[in-house]
Amino acid sequence: MNNMDKLDELFQDQREDFDEEPMEGHFQRFEEKLEQYHGRKKAILRSWPFLKIASLVIIVLLSANLFLYLLPGKSDKLDRVATNREMDETARFYTVRITSGLSQLQQMADQGIGSPLDLAQVKKEMDEMDRLHQDLQKEYSNNPNDERVINAMIEYYQTKLDIINTIKTDLEKVKSIKNKKNENTKL
For the chain, which terminal residue's Cβ has fewer other Cβ atoms within 10 angstroms, N or C? Predict the structure, then answer.
């Protein structure tokens, strides 16, 4: 005897249990439960328009954000603007200090510290450095996000300022030596 035969035999033996009618009021209780279930379902469905609108707004916002993110050149322009601002601030910082240092060198030359020939030589070297700076600016305008160009420009400013400060320090030493000689000769 296979399994199907055993199953058929089991159903035949207990057939009387399956022929039983449901208790009285069963259909009425079933309909009440169905109405309660449909009542909850309707309440859930009433909130669906709000959920649909909210999900639609979220999808639109995410799509717009994705579109802006993938828009070619837009992020590059923003990066370029930020880099340009930072570079402009750096250039202003060093330019003010370089200009101040050059004017101090001019004042020292006017006071007789160092010769006008030395000041002319310094100005000539500064002009050569400025030509290098012009080349760097052209390269920067072609490649504003190239770190090498940005670092080269900053290094240019730092080097120029260091040269001016070194010359100023040397001239101040000369000035202090001259002052000591003058004090010693007066005694």
Answer: C
